[in-house]
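[Meeting: bench + compute handoff]

Bench side (C.D.) handed over the final construct sequence. Compute side (W.E.) agreed to return the predicted structure before the next meeting so the bench team could plan truncations. Sequence as handed over:
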Amino acid sequence: MEFSNSFRHTMAILLAVLVVATAAATKADGLCDQPDKAALLAVKSALGNPPALSGWNSSAPCCSWDGVSCNAATGRVTVLTVFGLNISAPVPTAIANLTALEALNLAYNQLYGPIPSFLGPPALPGLNFLRLDGNRLSGAIPPTATVSNLLLVGNLLTGPLPATFGSAVFDEVDVADNQLTGDASMLFGAKKPLNALRLSRNRFSFDLGRVELPEELDLLLIDHNMVYGSIPAAAAAPGRKWLAFDVSYNQLCGTIPQGRYTHRFGAKHFAGNKCLCDRPLPPCS
């Protein structure tokens, strides 16, 4: 009798484990937030139902679709990637319904129209990565685009940066190759966590000598603008390890602060300014 009770107890435990495992597997196979799935199908429709998204259909869980990642516990869509499909359309409004979205990559298509204000808080409160580079988006950058990694290079954007960028917490900002104007100095600040800033080939105008370089900044590309003043002495600080540095073709003046970066980055990274001098450029007179 003792053996029988022990056996029954063991079998009951095994059966319970099997039931739980089967239920978990069934849940994982079918895990897909249904409102998010409907939103993704609306996104697909708004993009013209491209053949590359033919796997986005109602018969398959949305978390298994190409370019879609989900939270394993909730089935909510957290990552959406529609990259390099040459799609010509505005940014789909249905993306606003993916309220758990953390990363959105729509780069290298032919998207046109403005950047929607819902791409950021409060509509998408968890969004921290937004990549829209290589499209034909136009107009001003909306003040809600305060995501920590903002990549908008190679569009047709105009106007100044939003004032909200001054208090935003950015890790990376890339707005190169647009038609942006005005003061971008609000992006700087010694205690800001910014580590990469690309402003190249716009029409920004501000005094570089009056900004405080973020302590973590190791990539600064501001070439081909109308930036004036001087290069901050902090650029040559012994502990700063520049991965990229280019201030060429602006209106900068004065002596170039000497440091390891002046040896690593040659004259072309400082050329085309009003009156910069000293190595790697000719000596100051």
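W.E. noted at the follow-up: Residues 1-29 have pLDDT under 50 and may be disordered. C.D. will use this when planning the next construct.
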